[in-house]
Amino acid sequence: MKEFMLFIISEDNNIEKASAEEMQQHIRKVGDYIKKNVKEGRFLGAQPLEKNGVRVSGSKGNTFDGPFIETKEIILGYYHILAKDMEEAVEIAKADPRFEEEKWSIVIRPVLKVEGIN
Amino acid sequence: MSAESENINLLLDHLFRHESGKLVSVLTRIFGTENLDLAEDVVQDSIIEAFKQWTFTGIPENPAGWLYTVSKNKAVNILNREKHKRKYAEEFARYSETETATEQTLDHYFSEQHISDDQLRMIFVCCHPSIPPDSQVALTLKTLCGFSIREIAKAFMTNEETINKKLVRARQKLRQKKINFEVPESNNLEKRIDTVLKTIYLLFNEGYSASTGKDLIRVELCEEAIRLANMISEHDAIHDRSEVYALLSLMQLNTSRFSARQNDEGNILSMAEQDRSVWNKELIQAGLNNLERTIYNNNSVSVYHILAAISACHCTALSFETTDWKSILSLYDSLLQFDNSPVVLLNRAVALSKVYGAEKGIRELELIKVTPSIRTYHLFYSTQAQFYIELNNYSKAADCLEKAIQLSTIPSEKILLKERLKTCAGKIVA
């Protein structure tokens, strides 16, 4: 099994337009999906991320931190999952019921591990 | 879905909507009715926050408490930050001169008893006589029932812009008239309760009107109307008013037949054609209990009392034919004193025909035909046709059905009438 990080990305505005009822339905559906995956051992973690954060950048002696550049894309949270390979990770991501309503994207990155050393 | 998650879902049924109604009420008390939009924004923000978090972490054990805390914190921030920018509710201003005082006062306001009082106050604000009735319904749905503009528009079968305009106008009125956040004083209470009940009944009928299909949102309107009436009836200031129970009873009894009113193709079924085993027995029982409660109060009889009693006669009858038509007829006689609209006259004629025969029904229809508005009412002709069918006079029945088909604007109803016409035509040939 390999580890993957899945970053859940939304265009910031689509949530604000949903009704209370739709939000509740969404939480229920996605919540059930996460719960099932945790139970079956595929998810190691799933956490929401705050919208606010800073970027520390530069090089030694010249680092600075500033607010994130305003972008439409916001990383809402992440799933830390186990999958056989990238193909299965993609399948897991596609099964996320959040895709049923609004537009979302999920970025999948394998956790880098060199076999036999890590 | 697992049994476990299904349980949780039942527990959380409309949680967001209903908690949002509670929170908007409390915050409107704190911010003042002129700042209703601010209250709504704070609640919306809290719900979005819950949404973002709970999607990943699951729903917390005490979701309502979670939402209260988040909303309260947001309110504290706003009050401390914008203290001088806005004018908040006067009562509140007295208790919140320092930041700690603000927080303590808010803790007090966010307690269960206060929340229920505030919801009652809120409904009197939404149903203030200076706001037009359809705006009252929209505002009630938005603030107390947590419906979005899109959902209200769908329920009213109109566009979002129209609903938005109604809401904007209603909020303007609240500001202009400086409407207090309170339950009216006793000398004014009677009239104001009247308006509140009318608005709730309007909201109910919006959902119940058979002409508009089986959409989920329509059942939800009925449920909301019942929930609001229940909320009012439980309140100390109100609980001895029998018309509240009468309305509640009427709505519960009618809703019990909700899913039996249409067949699988979405066509409307008359009372005679409905499958009575589908009627919701719990709602019938609840409706009958509430009707019984009205008997112990000495308030004068309202339209709701009579309508609930009629509905009860239908709900307790084992079949259409064994319905207690004599009681229904005398109830319609009483109803005429309040309301002699075509619908009432027509329904009374049906009861009359059941008691004294179809011929009597036909004669009655001839009498009420003088009312101009009834001559363009398709149900008049379909009722007339029904009487003729009972007398085996199929050619006259066919004439009436043709008129009814012309006047009906509802496709599913037209189909039903056309089928009936075909049956009649068949009998004429035979």
Structural class of chain A: alpha+beta
The tally of beta strands of chain B, per DSSP, is: 0
- Supply the number of helical segments of chain A: 2
The averaged pLDDT of chain B comes out at 87
> Helical element count of chain B?
21
What does this protein structure show overall?
The complex is a heterodimer of chains A (118) and B (430). By secondary structure, chain A is an alpha+beta fold. In chain A, 25% of the residues lie in helices and 36% in strands. Chain A is built from 2 helices and 6 strands; from the N terminus they run βαββββαβ. Chain A has helices spanning 20-39, 86-94, and strands at 2-11, 43-48, 54-57, 64-67, 73-83, 104-110. In chain A, the strands form 2 sheets. A 4-stranded antiparallel sheet of chain A has the order 2-5-1-6. A two-stranded antiparallel sheet of chain A has the order 3-4. In chain A, a hairpin with a 6-residue loop joins strand 3 and strand 4 (64-67). With 430 residues, chain B is mostly helical. Helix content of chain B is 70%, strand content 0%. In chain B, helix 13 packs parallel to helix 15 and helix 20 (394-407) runs antiparallel to helix 21 (411-429). Chain B is elongated, with a radius of gyration of 25 Å. The model of chain B is unreliable at 1-10 (pLDDT under 50). Chain A binds chain B through residues 15-16, 18-24, 26-28, 30-32, 34-35, 46-48, 76-77, 98, and chain B through 1, 5, 9, 12, 14-17, 20, 44, 47-48, 50-59, 146-148, 150-151.
